[in-house]
Amino acid sequence: MKNSHNRNVSTQGSTEFTGIRLSEPASYAAGLKAVRVTLEHTFKEMGIYRALSTLSHMNQKEGFDCPGCAWPDPEKPSKLGEYCENGAKALSEEATTKRVDKSFFATHSVEELSLWSDYHIGKSGRLTEPMVLKPGRVHYEPISWDESFELIAKNLQDLDSPDEAIFYTSGRSSNEAAFLYGLFSRAYGTNNMPDCSNMCHESSGVALGETLGIGKGSVKLEDFYEAEIVMVIGQNPGTNHPRMLSALEKCKVNGGKVITINPLEEAGLKRFKNPQEIKGVLGSGETITDIHLQVKINQDVPLLKLILKKLAALDKGSKNVFDHEFINTYTEGYEALLQDLNHYSESDLLELSGVSESAIDEAVALLAEKKKIIICWAMGLTQHKNGVENIKECVNLLLLKGSLGKPGAGTCPVRGHSNVQGDRSVGIMHFVSEELNQGIEKTFGFKAPTKEGFDTVRAVKAMHDGKAKVFIGLGGNFASAVSDTEYTAEALQNCDLTVNISTKLNRTHLVTGKTALLLPTLGRSDMDLKEGKPRFFTVENSMGKVHRSKGVLPPASDNLKSEPEIVGGIANAYFNGNHPVDWKNLSADYELLREKMGMVLTAFKDVNDKSKGGGFYLPNNVRQLDFSKLPNQKAQFSVCGLPEHKLSPGEFILMTIRSHDQFNTTIYGLNDRYRGVHNERRVVFMNPRDMEKLKLNKLDVVNLISTYDQKERKAVKFLVIPYDIPEGNLASYYPETNVLVPYNHYADKSYTPISKSVVVTIEKT
Ligand SMILES: Nc1nc2c(c(=O)[nH]1)N[C@H]1C(S)=C(S)[C@@H](COP(=O)(O)OP(=O)(O)OC[C@H]3O[C@@H](n4cnc5c(=O)[nH]c(N)nc54)[C@H](O)[C@@H]3O)O[C@H]1N2
Ligand SMILES: Nc1nc2c(c(=O)[nH]1)N[C@H]1C(S)=C(S)[C@@H](COP(=O)(O)OP(=O)(O)OC[C@H]3O[C@@H](n4cnc5c(=O)[nH]c(N)nc54)[C@H](O)[C@@H]3O)O[C@H]1N2
Ligand SMILES: [Mo]
Fold it and tell me: Which ranges carry the Molybdopterin oxidoreductase domain (predicted)?
């Protein structure tokens, strides 16, 4: 696509097929095969010795936190290795021995690179030095750090208002880097801090905040070991949080039951062969799911309502299915909820859900009799128009059962990026936090802005409309991760300057503003050296525990800076000594940075000491059953409506999901082995009866078209794969299908794009 800067870059890259091979979907996850794949990936990217010695430090108390997902580490990490196949892939991707240096950019123009696939781009290696793409040029050229900082400062100074700048964050950054970045954005004068969680668990944050008073989960890892029931809804842990399977296994061994709700029967939820145990390697492993409810896409609310209705009927008879003492003491809205349930007929709800009634009855019988319930969920619930209500319906169930604030029970939104929760805790948010603003004023002596900033959806629109002109990304891959690829690309290309602080090359570095800067930074596994000594930083896991992480590998190049140093460099150049914050000192001294963080945010007081050893839990009011911040000091039941999908003939609902070989837009490989797809990503999973209706055969080539708001959006060339998925539903991979997700279609209240319920038609080619 030609843009105003005369660069002819592709926003999606190659759509060539790569040579598909199909096999039966797997009946279990992990096992020996996972060990083999782990070693293959790490040895290839890192070399054998380096791979083995580095893996032994991952998720260990004196080592570094896995750069993959945010699942917590057990109190006593296994000495055999506390990592999973996909954590090892995340590490090898970061610790690769390949390099993208100035000669790489001299050889390849951004126009040429943009034609490569994301897989190919990502495999090029680690960035080694700051680079600039000047107006009208198509090759990146080297630039010094100081000149880079000056260039950013100049562009920020030239804006008419600080609200014309966007400060995006992905969830890999440390607490220290994120705190400093948020501080600079506020000192500069804007709350325009969109972050990846806007596209991810924002719906969870909103729903949990409104019902329970904290936008985070309430369980700790140990709770899984004593839960009587774990419900896993809209989540694929076998691929995206593999170490969660060890927790589910322990729950099962201790007599717990697992109920899964998902349009797909994911391999990792069927059976787990724990590679850390002999039984897992040589034996048949542990069955995970006891009851699978194969819901239609986005029909979780009808299904949950039906479960609640059936439980309420049982409770009416015996009075001991619900925890009435808990309901009376801690909650508000019980009567309204029960009344609302009366409005629905069981048969309507059953039909909408698409699940067999006998399976639902089995789940109801189990839920009726047990009291310690954990509900886990991820993107299958959050990325819908009614994402917030999906989660509120889960909270309703937990409140009815009194399954909060006690061992073995509670909410568990399973986070994505390894420090996405920490970034929010230390100030990455577009909305205004009074506590934070007051803390900043008291500690640093300046007033933070009080106007709400742009989240991701609104940031894209602002850039598209020419209302924002400078984009800075602290990690992430904005062009590929955000919905509506063409629209988002235009938004970025409208900017005067786009800056990316990154470890590796990605599409956002190619789909740029008039001028672009590429600032290479240290990754999680790299040693962050000061005067020759490695430093640590802190992160927060999915369960609210803050702990240290210290990289062990020599940095990918001598010319990298840490994220705090880069943010400090920008701030220092911008303020040039005219600001109450001593940016240079603060960004160079992490101890000082943490001390200040603890002064601004009381939850982080004494973090320098408390983060030692296993770390410490941040305060969590649900664990204490303290609902004092909510209306009438009570946890809130919610009355939720039904999701609405009026499909015309020929329309399907598409969920855009992850394969087993990717981390978001980073493509590790071309296989999705648990689903039986090898060496190809351009596939669409479809029910065989739907295929028959459309006269489609296996591996036929189709285009997918979405027409929200009468605008045609097309994703071309996908191979049809017959699969066990409800009729009327489709699944395909992200980011290839982001082009179909409308930028202006998002969840109520949370503004999360509806990546899991895109209405599409199919065009045979
Ligand atoms: N290896 C690896 N690990 C990762 C990531 C990665 O890409 N790779 N990404 C990280 C990030 S940022 C995140 S947010 C998490 C994502 O973790 P997940 O949320 O597990 O990721 P998705 O592939 O988006 O899977 C969504 C699951 O929800 C189901 N689903 C879709 N729609 C519905 C629905 O309407 N109802 C129900 N009940 N289920 C539905 C899908 O079938 C699928 O199993 O993983 C994190 N960890
Ligand atoms: N259609 C569709 N769209 C989605 C989703 C979906 O399910 N469907 N999921 C959404 C979700 S849940 C999320 S979280 C977002 C993800 O959105 P992002 O977080 O923006 O995307 P990632 O692919 O995780 O970003 C990867 C890039 O981060 C950089 N990076 C890696 N490690 C580091 C580091 O340590 N420091 C720095 N500075 N940079 C680093 C590398 O350059 C890498 O290319 O995508 C969202 N988009
Ligand atoms: Mo995410």
Answer: 126-503
